[in-house]
């Protein structure tokens, strides 16, 4: 604890964002380059040395947060990077993409703004690359065992890296043409520039991990055939089966799923396309769904030059402060948060009829109507109460040339045939069944991440990848020294 009074004398200061007018004109990350390091040591000083760090339990990775806060406050970046990488394979990802449940569990957050844990984590991750503190770590010797990992999102990459470093020969199979899963094509460039992903992939290649892109297991290669080639298989395909909105007019042209829309914008940034065939340019856009994916669509539509953008959230607008009775510390509270995309929409007034920024809260879609050519032109909605029951005389119509459905995901996509070909047992909610050791009903086949847990956060995905790697290593060798931060049945802290 470098400064015993830091939490009393130093106010919270977050990584500043670039001006709205500047950042919506490009696809670069929203934060001011280089503005984090000058403030981060003092911010790390705010860590209280609280004795029982609830931030550990709030983070499924078990990150050693007070330890690396202390090291950063002393500007010992090498030691901080070592402690951070001891529990997290990809801190530069989580430092940008995680909603930071650790900060909700910060003891200081009981009555003050929490320590900027996420910013400190990001600073350590970036500094590690700049100073060469993240070299490849190939194994000293090979085990002679082989593992196939299906899916290259955070779960698949974490599992692959852990197993490769344990000495196994690992091949990662990805159905898309590039590695990264939703981090590649689902996360907009303004939230995480893809060079962060590329350098981790190169690190993994140097360690010995093999990558097989444009290969959908179950379609391009039979699932049973793949199982016969390897000593173990890890299914980490994510939960990409999107939820539908079954209301009149859904068949109209111009109503798209968010994960049909976002990948095209990412492909423009990758240089694959000159412009997106679903571009929001000049269109009135309505996003149905109030979560992070909806916010990603919002920021993307603003950058594409939409005429207007409105986001519908079926829940009532949350308050600015934690409800101590309903969501007591250290649980993650549902409060009003202003993401970078919402800040942009607010300042640019993209949705004049919205309750706040671009959002209409407690809003439920009733139907769509279109023109004579079958194109969507309007979305009809109604306000709802806390039980989602329509309230009388609250109907409203919004112009809509493009509607984006961001309603979440129910489980793994089954169109490739992977699940049926292997004969995997499934849960009623659409996820893969597994036991306490991450094993499915098929010998040698393990399931991890959103495909088995259900839609979750990036920190849970990485924790699942690390834990399933330990289970596979034990299956192959009879024991394992790999860390297993969670069990398949652990859940976030809740009331």
UniProtKB/TrEMBL annotation:
UniProtKB keywords: Amino-acid biosynthesis, Glutamate biosynthesis, Oxidoreductase
Record-given protein name: Glutamate synthase subunit beta
4Fe-4S ferredoxin-type domain span: 38-69
Q: Which InterPro entries match?
A: 4Fe4S_Fe-S-bd (IPR017896), DPD_II (IPR028261), FAD/NAD-bd_sf (IPR036188), FAD/NAD-binding_dom (IPR023753), Glut_synth_ssu1 (IPR006005), Glutamate_Synthase (IPR051394), Helical_ferredxn (IPR009051)
Matching Pfam families, A to Z? Fer4_20 (PF14691), Pyr_redox_2 (PF07992)
Q: Which Gene3D superfamilies match?
A: Alpha-helical ferredoxin (1.10.1060.10), FAD/NAD(P)-binding domain (3.50.50.60)
Nuclease in keyword set = no
